[in-house]
Design goal:
With 362 residues, the protein is an alpha/beta fold. It has helices spanning 31-42, 61-76, 110-130, 144-149, 164-182, 204-217, 248-255, 272-280, 291-295, 299-304, 319-325, 341-345, 351-361; strands spanning 6-8, 11-13, 17-19, 47-54, 80-86, 97-98, 106-107, 134-139, 187-193, 221-225, 262-266, 286-288. It has an eight-stranded parallel β-barrel, surrounded by seven helices. A two-stranded antiparallel ribbon has the order 1-2. It binds flavin mononucleotide (FMN).
């Protein structure tokens, strides 16, 4: 099933493999970034979702024109391209706000909420103009939109806080604003944290009606992740000691309540067998393969051709992610060529250099 095509409205995917959004610190327009993403597309992923991108960068025409080159490269390599849009906690003025006041952040006003919806909608329209086949609205991983949905961080007493229905409002307005900006025949994905590992956080009981509401508001694809837990990032990026297909049952629960929307499962699925099983059991329509595509951009092709023994396996060390927190470009413990694909492409790195780098990582 992994290599069966899937149609989502006008978007025709050649298979069920999605490269989920993963920050790189390579930018999106550099040769390094373009070649890095194109390599994953060439390696067989059906859909490549570019990393979380702050919405206000789309205000710059030079960014929109520049990022079109990334889209072209992904398309030329045989995949469809999407981009994740991130509303952060910062207003265009630079001031930090939150759904409810917290240390160092004041509560966002209703007017500023309306402005945020417009800023996101504009970014989505510009992403479409740049050629992206879909947008992925970032409602997960403890970012701003998730903070609105979570009873832990949203203590508002107006129409945006309190009951479950009110906590949904911000996200639903984001979706409605995006839909108005991109038109009917364009794919909107929403990344959501199905649970938050805090006693007073998001539960699956909150998530299921939310998924239905998102679908009714016009979301085509629900991308089901989890939130960061107390002091731990490894819930989102499951470590080696966590089970394979870590969050697939949450995706399955969502798939059980929606009718039209497609569902993406994510979390440590890096063998053909595990991904096929999740699809066969009807837990999801699409499989996000994250760190494994950092470790081996040709994972999909190797699975399809029965060459799994040749796969460079991700060891879930999370070195890639840790580097981001030190404001460094990602690297990989098992793949020394991450971020250097363009040096291979332009001949700066010779076969001898590559062989030496590979020996070093063994
Ligand atoms: C280096 C790195 C950067 C990430 N950046 C993002 C991001 O920009 N947006 C997002 O929604 N998730 C991000 N994630 C989470 C991944 O999309 C994915 O959900 C997670 O890695 C689990 O999938 P995996 O086990 O297949 O790696 C990132 C993960 C990693 C390792």
């Amino acid at each position: 099933m992994l290599f069966e095509p899937l149609e989502i409205g006008a978007l025709k995917l050649k298979n069920r493999i999605v490269m989920p959004p993963m920050a790189t610190n390579f930018g999106l327009r550099s040769d390094r970034a373009v070649t890095y993403y194109a390599e994953r597309a060439k390696g067989g992923a059906g859909l490549v979702i570019a990393q979380a991108t702050p919405i206000d960068v789309f205000q710059k025409a030079s960014f929109v024109a520049g990022v079109a080159r990334l889209v072209e490269a992904i398309h030329a390599a045989g995949a469809k391209a999407a981009i994740q849009l991130l509303c952060g906690n910062k207003l265009p003025s630079g001031e930090a706000v939150a759904p409810s006041a917290t240390d160092g952040m004041r509560e966002i006003t209703r007017q500023e909420i309306r402005d945020t919806v417009q800023r996101l909608a504009f970014a989505a329209a510009m992403a479409k103009e740049a050629g992206f086949d879909a947008v992925n609205l970032h409602g997960a991983h403890s970012h701003f939109a998730q903070e609105f949905f979570s009873p832990r961080t949203n203590k508002r007493t107006d129409e945006y806080g309190g009951s479950l229905e009110r906590r949904m409002r911000f996200a639903l307005e984001l979706v409605a604003g995006t839909r108005a900006a991109v038109g009917d025949d364009y794919v909107i994905m929403y990344r959501h944290s199905a649970i938050e590992y805090f006693d007073d956080g998001i539960t699956i009981e909150d998530t299921l009606p939310f998924a239905v509401a998102l679908e009714n508001a016009g979301v085509d694809v629900l991308d089901i992740s989890v939130a960061h837990g107390p002091g731990r990032k490894d819930y989102v990026m499951p470590r080696k000691n966590m089970p394979m297909a870590t969050h697939a049952d949450l995706a399955a629960a969502v798939k059980g309540v929606v009718t039209r929307a497609k569902v993406i499962a994510v979390g440590r699925m890096n063998t053909g067998e595990v991904t096929e099983r999740v699809l066969r059991e009807g837990k999801a329509d699409l499989i996000a393969v994250g760190r494994q595509l950092i470790a081996d951009p040709y994972w999909a092709q190797k699975v399809r051709e029965g060459r799994e023994a040749e796969i460079t396996v991700c060891n879930a060390c999370n070195k890639c992610y840790k580097r981001l927190h030190n404001f460094l470009p990602i690297t990989c413990e098992v793949n020394p060529l991450v971020g250097r694909e363009w040096e291979v492409a332009n001949g700066t790195l010779t076969d001898v250099d590559i062989a030496a780098l590979r020996v070093k990582t063994r």
